[in-house]
């Protein structure tokens, strides 16, 4: 199915007032408006405003086709299999076990998903049960470790219940003589219209999966969000791979993933897991970023953990809870540690594609790097890019020093970080070789040995 929305130009004109009120976030993409939270009075709408009937606007299109305009919005069930030339091959055979996702996505994104090599591959399974979802005092329910889990281990791979657009839309048309809408009225229309769109995807869900979705927590009961939008805002998360094409010179819209079990994870600013998206299995996969003990709560982050306490607090506010993790209880200490980690990382040249730069550093002082890694561990920041970068630089620095043993220690730690954060498994042999750096380390070691013996010989001659 597809529908037509108001033009970008008109949409932007209508949300201009929201920008002026400070509720717009132009950096996040075209028409991205910050949605209200907390208790917000909903305004009445002017009379004569046409109601938005999503079903009336929709038009049936051929589900087995990939021939859509990039910006056509579609309801579609994923994963669906296509040959590399775009020929429809049906649903994968494993959907009874792995489940299917109801998606409201663009034509561009459907094509991107459908043409991914291996799309519809079965989900990876864990050998022994890793987790259970039980009461978490003061937090509703949460996920807890069923057994000890090692850093890097897969805890869960899950196919989303739903994939929905993150940006609220305004679709209904106004009569030519309609009074100008206030920002609050614009917001209310966006919330109502978007809820109607979301209903189209929810109505397609299989009964069991729909029931699971309806059981999810909704922390947006009083801010004008409908029941679907409220659950989406409480439980959804996003990944770069599920981003749309750029529009109007702004980054493309992201699509929100809502799961059953993975949406039961509570937040910590020092989480013990990391989640990443795997397109071929069309699933979210979650791994331990450090060792997790049996019965320990399994946590994820809802914000940017390296940010200061004040920024994290602001970004967590819509979730309607007060974070009581150690970093938020003692912000003075945690902010100072974050600043120190950041300073060491910047001094060592964090930049784009750092993980591809195997040039060994000229400086071979490891103390600040080791201190910063220690601070990451104290703060539970093992899943950050900063931590991965520090492990990588330490591996290269030990290679530059000719210290093969320590180079291998950090190659191993870096490979666990890569596995947990990016889902990229590293060959055991590669780790032993320090991603090729072992040759550098051994060469430096030989040179040092030669210089030492050379120095001795000279001294002997001098006698
Ligand atoms: C994605 S849900 C997590 C699962 C949820 N606890 C439940 O019962 O379904 C997010 C909601 O859980 C609660 N929550 C998450 N992390 C929390 C924390 N650290 N402390 C208190 N409540 C938390 C908040 O109500 C938040 O809006």
Automatic annotation (TrEMBL):
Coiled coil: none annotated. Pfam families: SET. Signal peptide: none annotated. PROSITE patterns: SET. Transmembrane segments: none annotated. It comes from the Eukaryota. Residues 124-303 form the SET domain. This is SET domain-containing protein. It comes from Steccherinum ochraceum. The lineage of its organism: Eukaryota, Fungi, Dikarya, Basidiomycota, Agaricomycotina.
């Amino acid at each position: 199915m597809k529908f037509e929305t108001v033009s970008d130009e008109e949409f932007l004109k209508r949300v201009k007032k929201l920008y002026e009120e400070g509720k717009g976030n132009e950096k996040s993409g075209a028409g991205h408006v910050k949605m209200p939270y907390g208790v917000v009075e909903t305004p009445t709408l002017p009379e004569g405003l046409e109601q938005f009937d999503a079903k009336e606007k929709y038009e049936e299109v051929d589900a087995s086709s990939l021939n859509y305009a990039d910006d056509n919005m579609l309801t579609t069930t994923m994963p669906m299999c296509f040959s590399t030339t775009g020929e429809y091959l049906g649903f994968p055979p494993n959907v009874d076990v792995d489940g299917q996702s109801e998606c409201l996505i663009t034509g561009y994104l459907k094509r991107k998903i459908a043409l991914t090599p291996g799309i519809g591959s079965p989900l990876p399974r864990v050998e022994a049960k890793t987790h259970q979802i039980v009461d978490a005092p003061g937090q509703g329910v949460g996920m807890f470790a069923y057994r000890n889990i090692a850093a890097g281990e897969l805890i869960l791979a899950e196919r989303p219940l739903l994939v929905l657009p993150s940006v609220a839309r305004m679709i209904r048309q106004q009569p030519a003589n309609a009074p100008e809408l206030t920002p609050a009225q614009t917001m209310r229309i966006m919330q109502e219209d978007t809820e109607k769109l979301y209903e189209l995807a929810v109505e397609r869900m299989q009964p069991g999966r729909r029931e699971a979705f309806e059981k999810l927590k909704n922390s947006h009961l009083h801010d004008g969000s409908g029941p679907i939008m409220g659950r989406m805002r409480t439980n959804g998360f996003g990944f770069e791979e599920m981003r749309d094409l750029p529009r109007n010179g702004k980054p493309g819209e992201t699509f929100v993933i809502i799961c059953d079990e993975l949406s039961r994870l509570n937040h910590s600013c020092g989480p013990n897991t990391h989640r990443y998206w795997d397109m071929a299995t069309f699933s979210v996969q979650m791994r331990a970023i450090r060792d997790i003990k049996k019965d320990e709560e399994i946590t994820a982050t809802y914000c940017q953990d390296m940010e200061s306490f004040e920024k994290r607090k602001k970004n967590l506010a819509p979730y309607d809870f007060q974070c009581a993790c150690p970093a938020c209880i003692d912000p003075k200490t945690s902010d100072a540690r974050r600043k120190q980690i950041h300073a060491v990382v910047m001094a060592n040249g964090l930049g784009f594609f750092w993980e591809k730069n195997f040039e060994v550093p000229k400086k071979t002082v490891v103390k600040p790097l080791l201190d910063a890694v220690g601070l990451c561990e104290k703060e539970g920041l093992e899943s950050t890019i900063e931590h991965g970068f520090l492990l990588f630089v330490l591996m290269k620095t030990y290679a530059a020093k000719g210290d093969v043993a320590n180079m291998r220690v950090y190659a191993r730690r870096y490979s666990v970080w890569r596995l947990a954060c990016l889902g990229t498994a590293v060959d055991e042999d590669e780790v032993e070789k320090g991603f090729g750096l072992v040759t550098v380390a051994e060469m430096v070691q030989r040179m040092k040995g030669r210089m030492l013996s050379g120095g001795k010989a000279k001294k002997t001659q001098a006698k």
